[in-house]
TrEMBL record:
Organism for this UniProt entry: Luffa aegyptiaca
Residues annotated to bind Ca(2+) 2: T190, D238, T241, D246
Record PANTHER family: PEROXIDASE 58 (PTHR31388:SF147), PEROXIDASE 72-RELATED (PTHR31388)
Protein's UniProt name: Peroxidase
Source lineage: Eukaryota, Viridiplantae, Streptophyta, Embryophyta, Tracheophyta
Compartment annotation: Secreted
Length: 331
């Protein structure tokens, strides 16, 4: 009887947690699209060669996909009948890279038509974006399917560059990600750019204080003010090695040179458990890469659609029954 109860309990847990996770496997496409990793990596390298920001664009799309109703490709859907695009959500305003995903998807479709989901392409492209630019590699798990719905309201609630630590932690915790994951995944800001509108409020009258943000290094603030000729100017997240995936994001935080409020809050909020994690990841390159890899795999397994759920989109921006009708691209 005891063994039966244990078995029943494990089955119940499987229904709650394991049904989707267990179906994601490394060998999902071994028979149907064996060259998938090579195709995606080739296209990601090509994109980065023509646009050094391509990798950061792709990984941001993957993050924003997984944080709204799970890793299901919903972030890629444009406005259409019955679809209010997540791209219109406050957290996605200005997000870029749809044309890169479209090029990768087209290359995959030429070899393996109707087989590989856009959600899986985002997961693979994010990994390649990182290791092509000096970061860690990992084995991507596959088997995600693409959502037939979008959630613009969810995109309105994405983690914000203006948020302090506690709201950020709550948003991560709601998805099963802890404060260590928050610090590790924020390390993606070791490459890429941000528009000045997302941090120029730190220059003066910060939070109505009449003064600059005290957690922003004064010399760095002056450099940023000179660089921000208008609010849409883009500035490197990492002023030291802006296009290399390394631990300098964390050493920048230690020097009060985190670009966004959400970045610097990981280190500058007194007594926060994230401070020790920042110090740990700043101490050794290998430590950061190991933690980042682990948290990326964990994030990539947030509520995927599997089995017969959703669909395998032919056009990542459109549901299959809407075909290739033109939608808006976000540039």
């Amino acid at each position: 009887m005891a063994s039966f109860n244990v078995a029943a309990f494990l089955f119940f847990l499987g229904l709650l947690f394991g049904a989707s996770f267990a179906q994601l496997t490394e060998d999902f496409y071994d028979q149907t699209c064996p060259r998938l990793p090579n195709i995606v990596r080739r296209e990601v390298k090509r994109a980065i060669e023509s646009d050094i920001r391509a990798g950061a664009k792709l990984i941001r799309l993957h993050f924003h996909d997984c944080f709204v109703q799970g890793c299901d490709g919903s972030v890629l859907l444009v406005d259409a009948p019955g679809i209010e695009s997540e791209l219109n959500g406050l957290g996605n305003l200005g997000i870029q890279g749809l044309e890169i995903v479209a090029a990768i998807k087209a290359a995959v479709e030429r070899e393996c038509p109707g087989v590989v989901s856009c959600a899986d392409i985002l997961a693979q492209a994010s990994k390649d974006s990182v290791d092509v630019q000096g970061g860690p590699s990992w084995r991507v798990l596959y088997g995600r399917r693409d959502s037939r719905t979008a959630n613009k309201t969810g995109a309105d609630e994405l983690p914000s560059p203006f948020e302090t630590l506690e709201p950020l932690k709550k948003k991560f915790e709601a998805l099963g990600l802890n404060s260590t994951d928050l610090v590790a995944l924020s390390g993606a800001h070791t490459f890429g750019r941000s528009r000045c509108r997302f941090f120029n409020g730190r220059f003066s009258n910060f939070s109505g204080s009449g003064q600059p943000d005290p957690t922003l290094d004064p010399t760095y603030r002056q450099e940023l003010e000179r660089a921000c000729t208008n609010e849409d100017t883009r500035v490197n997240f990492d002023p030291t090695t802006p296009d290399t995936f390394d631990k300098n994001y964390y050493t920048n935080l230690q020097a009060n040179r985190g670009l966004l409020t959400s970045d610097q809050s990981l280190f500058s909020e007194a007594g926060a458990d994230t401070v020790d994690t920042v110090n740990l990841l700043a101490s050794r390159e290998g430590t950061f890469l190991r933690f980042f890899r682990r948290s990326m795999i964990k994030m990539g397994n947030i509520r995927p659609l599997t089995g017969n759920q959703g669909e395998i989109r032919t056009n990542c921006s459109r549901l299959n029954d809407l075909g290739a009708q033109p939608g808006h691209d976000v540039m």
